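Continuing the series of single-chain predictions for the mutant panel. This is the parent chain; the variants come on the following pages.
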Amino acid sequence: SGVGKTQFCRILSGLKKPNTGQVSIRAASGKMIDIEPGLIGFVGQDYPLFTWRTVIGNLLVAQEALKISKTEKLEKAWKMLEEFGLADKTKAYPSQLSGGQRQRVAIIRELLSSENFVILDEPFTGLDVLKLDKACEMIIKISNLHESNTVFVVAHDIESIARISDELWLFGREKDEAGGFIPGASIKKIYDTKSLGIAWTPGIEKTSKFADLCAAIKEDFKGL
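Parent structure:
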């Protein structure tokens, strides 16, 4: 309760301890464990990569903590690069990549180093219509790469986030006695798009059911 977007991402990724309670995830072993830095990948808006390392170099660094051979690390990196159409960019440096390519490499890096969890902070910002479609397709693809993959997307673009989510959390700020906003935010409403028949449905954004959901979210947002 009472956290801003950045703080929420840092708490969820284990980079900051919550004031109360705890954050736990179901690990690959099936057991619930307390979150620690590195268990959930975090991709910020600037798609942070080591500028002095090639694409493959960035992906190998991400796997340093894994107890597998270098050959296995290379195989895992190559497989992910092929999945996302970047197999020809292994020797390129971040400065030689487009914004979309850097974003994909940053996401791959976090997936390789985390427990199937990744947070994307405003992945739709500044994208035109065609790039928005590709970004949504990419996020859906990430979710489907492994049964345990879970993607947390923090965004203000209601239509785009509704297209790729099976659950939506609407955050809002609390007000003091004078009616002023208190810094930070908390979850005000949860939308289960699975029960609405919207989740994981190709082309759902063209339906009236989808339009009704987005309209309802916007109306709820106005009332916060």
